[in-house]
Design a protein that fits this description.
single chain, about 230 residues, alpha/beta, 6-stranded mixed β-sheet, binds adenosine-5'-triphosphate, ATP binding, AAA+_ATPase, ECF_ABC_transporter_ATP-bd, ABC_transporter-like_ATP-bd
Length: about 230
Amino acid sequence: MSTLRLDRVVVTAPTVEGEITILRETSLTLTEQRIALVGPNGSGKSTLARLLNGLVSPASGRVTLDDLDVATDGREVRRRVGFMFTDPSSQLIMPTVVEDVMLSLRRTHRSARERREAAMGVLATYGLQGLADRSVHALSGGQRQLLALAGVLACEPEVVVADEPTTLLDLANARRVGDLLMSLPQQVVVCTHDLDLAERCDRALWIEDGAVRHDGPAAATVAAYRASVG
Ligand SMILES: Nc1ncnc2c1ncn2[C@@H]1O[C@H](COP(=O)(O)OP(=O)(O)OP(=O)(O)O)[C@@H](O)[C@H]1O
């Protein structure tokens, strides 16, 4: 597994009332295969997740992936760390399903024919081949989320960061996407309000008020978080 490290990272944001701190000074070393970030709305989970591939930059401190610094090696880090957004519409760009996966493969497969073949292979892997020529707008929420994940996985990242990947899905599709994430050979960091999904991880961090409040084996962190909610 890769080593994701936050070294005394602080994140701030400008607001009309002045600068606010959205992640207090945090140091972490993440080496486990499956890591969950749990905590209430607005606690800082997405901010922490976004730091991992440079979608958010720290005001101070350093974020690294193995020997790469996210601030200076952003391009390489983004190649290795795939990011899946809560709302798949924000990452599905092309008109049809297969074209969307082909877009993900533009850097690794030069010819259109190779790209199409590889994209069909990716779709088959995730049981989406029957939808290849369907408009991305005609997919169900679950199909769209799976397609977004397939697009991320097509680039063969070492790490997948998923920000509330099951929030918009019904029970069956949430389970399908959750099962897929938990079966990936990659390292997975997932922000989630789905505590059953969090419990399936190796480690969980409970984030509250811009800080890590509890960090440990997923079962222990989730139990502590559940107890706090009552
Ligand atoms: N660019 C920004 N400018 C101002 N405030 C921000 C910015 N980004 C995040 N915040 C604030 O920082 C806090 C943490 O946001 P973040 O999205 O990380 O929380 P979260 O734990 O992922 O929440 P949720 O569970 O609702 O998705 C929130 O109060 C949010 O409003």
